[in-house]
Specification:
- The strands form 3 sheets. A 6-stranded antiparallel β-barrel has the order 4-5-6-9-8-7.
- A hairpin with a 2-residue loop joins strand 5 and strand 6.
- It folds into 3 domains: 294 residues, Thrombin, subunit H, CATH 2.40.10.120; 44 residues, no CATH class; 43 residues, no CATH class.
- It contains 7 helices and 19 strands.
- The protein starts with a strand and ends in a 12-residue tail after the last strand.
- Helices cover 14% and strands 29% of the residues.
- The protein is an alpha+beta fold.
């Protein structure tokens, strides 16, 4: 990619969504503390949590270069001042101009816009050498009044593209239902690919089993309260029982607060599910955020039932306890159905503009204000007619 400098962000560069002590985090969400000073600091000087971390592949997955899977690409950022480019999330085409991803992946766009960072969809099997880079034109998130385990409620979002993709068959969308419990699903993503947190930019496929569709997510992910406490206190889970140690030394942890937190860790009904707990399952990880929970239909079409949302995030190992998918329950599914019909108000006019009938037109996009519109030259006095 001539003229572009690609950089993979460290695995810790994401904002933790706190359920307790930052244990549950959205894979690759933005930090509200981002500001213009981020651009003035070198990579080594930027503390953890200052940029969306979306560059991590599926642990244990297989490299998936097949063009048949090109409906799934990577969301990448590009710093306007330097040309520096890196990964944010995974996103899949569900209509010629519409991607489905996680809501937390698109929540950073207003901040990025203010500090001079663009977000684009990188098409192809390797975000380091994309077949195409398409700017985002508009974004929207599924409605929700509940925080959910990700902190974003129904953590499903869409990103609309600046121009349509007409030579890829979009991924179908399907309602997620409770009878999928125990089903083996295909996952795709560009995230962390090894237990040391490394990212190589390549798309990978994995297989994850639906382990829980309701009830306590911590129980599904860790097995019991003792393991939850041990992970909070020591950042690991072992065969040892930490509760007697805490009984002897109560300063190690506030057990009552932890019991309340454990009990509150409930999956959002119909819109969240735990995966990755069956023998042989792969593990979605950072930068896999927004990647699909998919199957091939009886007609041979790829369809998604949800997107990678969040998971437990101890210091080590990476993504080793299963994860939570934001599923396409009734509200999220209806939201996606409506967004697939999005029409670009700018038509085929881009930000550089064009001359039509002697009038200059350009497309204006503003993520902070949720604006996408066609603008014509209205200067006073009128500017001379432009040339076709």
């Amino acid at each position: 990619m001539t003229g572009r400098r690609w950089r993979t962000l460290g695995a810790s560069t994401r904002r933790s969504v706190v359920i307790f002590s930052g244990l549950i985090c959205s894979w690759a969400c933005g930090d509200p503390r981002l500001d213009a000073t981020w651009l003035e600091r070198g990579p080594e000087a930027r503390p953890p949590g200052e940029l969306a971390a979306l560059a991590s592949p599926i642990l244990g997955g297989l490299v998936a270069p097949s063009p048949e899977l090109d409906h799934t690409g990577a969301l990448v950022y590009r710093v306007r001042a330097t040309g520096e480019v890196g990964p944010l999330c995974t996103a899949s085409l569900i209509a010629p101009e519409t991607l489905v991803t996680a809501k937390h992946c698109i929540s950073v766009l207003p901040i990025f816009e203010r500090i001079g960072i663009d977000v684009l969809w990188a098409r192809g099997a390797d975000f380091n050498a994309p077949a195409d880079l398409i700017p985002l034109a508009a974004v929207a998130g599924a409605p929700s009044e509940e925080p959910g385990l990700s902190g974003y409620g129904r953590d499903v979002g869409v990103a609309h593209l600046d121009r349509p993709v007409l030579d890829i068959t979009p991924l179908g969308i399907r309602r997620f239902t409770a009878d999928l419990l125990g089903a083996s699903m295909v996952t795709l993503g560009y995230g962390v690919s090894s237990a040391n947190g490394s990212i190589d930019g390549r798309r990978r496929s994995g297989r994850e089993t639906i382990a829980r569709v309701e009830g306590n997510a911590y129980e599904a992910l860790l097995g019991d309260f003792e393991s939850f406490v041990e992970l909070v206190v020591t950042q690991q889970v072992t065969a040892a029982d930490i509760l007697p140690r805490i009984a002897e030394d109560p300063t190690l942890a506030d057990l009552e607060a932890l019991r309340l937190e454990y009990a509150a860790g409930l999956l959002l009904p119909e819109h969240e599910a735990v995966t990755g707990k069956a023998p042989g399952d792969t593990q979605s990880c950072e930068v896999d955020s927004g990647g699909p929970l998919a199957r091939v239909s009886a007609e041979g079409e790829w369809e998604t039932y949800g997107v990678v949302s969040s998971g437990l995030r101890p210091l080590r190992p990476f993504c080793d306890f299963g994860q939570i998918f934001a599923t396409l329950g009734p509200v999220s599914f209806e939201f996606l159905e409506a967004e697939r019909g999005w029409t670009d108000p700018c038509g085929d006019v881009d930000g550089d503009g064009r001359c039509r009938d002697g009038v200059f037109e350009r497309c204006e996009t503003n993520f902070t204000g949720g604006l996408r519109r066609l603008v014509t030259d209205t200067t006073e006095p009128p500017a001379p007619p432009c040339a076709e």
